[in-house]
Amino acid sequence: MKRMMIVAALAALTTTTVAQAADPAAYVEYRKSVLSATSNYMKAIGITLKEDLAVPNQTADHAKAIASIMETLPAAFPEGTAGIAKTEAKAAIWKDFEAFKVASKKSQDAALELASAAETGDKAAIGAKLQALGGTCKACHKEFKAD
């Protein structure tokens, strides 16, 4: 048992050290990538609705992927990554990080609601939840993303 605790402690220390040693520009590249993926998932959902595509479960799966990204998104904005590389992230993120986390959580919740609507197959409900998710994205961008 003692040995297991030592191994777990060393693993945690190693993980923390690696995270702290990461290149700040890599965080910028990472968050651009996941936010681009989020945008593409939303576009795919919109196309599926507009064109009435027969792609079973994809809308719910895409919405769940967005929710997963939003759940962990704040971790992609650690201290020391403001103004690194070419980024559209406003300093407001780090000035009021709690508000940024709340905005991310709102998007996560909206994405989960979209996933639930998608599982019913009700296109009107899916469309409404997609618009609601888009609204949370827009609100976050207004506050935290430079044009």
Radius of gyration: 18 Å
* The named CATH superfamily: Cytochrome c/b562
Poorly predicted ranges: 13-18
Overall average pLDDT: 89
| Helix-strand pattern | HHHHHH
Helices and strands: which structural class?
mainly alpha
CATH topology: Four Helix Bundle (Hemerythrin (Met), subunit A)
Q: Strand share of the residues?
A: under 5%
Shape label? elongated
How would you sum up the major sheet? none
Query: How many individual β-strands?
Result: 0
CATH C-level class: Mainly Alpha
Helix content: over 70%
| End-to-end gap | 54 Å
CATH 2nd-level architecture: Up-down Bundle
Q: How many structural domains are formed by the residues? A: 1
Number of helices, counting only DSSP H or I runs of 4 residues or more: 6
Binding site for heme c: 31, 87-88, 137, 140-141
Function: Cytochrome c' is the most widely occurring bacterial c-type cytochrome. Cytochromes c' are high-spin proteins and the heme has no sixth ligand. Their exact function is not known.
GO molecular function, one term: iron ion binding
Protein name: Cytochrome c'
What structural keywords apply?
147 residues; mainly alpha; electron transport; Four Helix Bundle (Hemerythrin (Met), subunit A); Cyt_c_II
Characterization of this structure:
The chain has helices spanning 2-21, 24-51, 58-72, 92-95, 97-120, 123-144. By secondary structure, the protein is an all-alpha fold. It has one domain (24-144): Four Helix Bundle (Hemerythrin (Met), subunit A) (Up-down Bundle), CATH 1.20.120. It is elongated, with a radius of gyration of 18 Å. One of its GO terms (molecular function) is electron transfer activity.
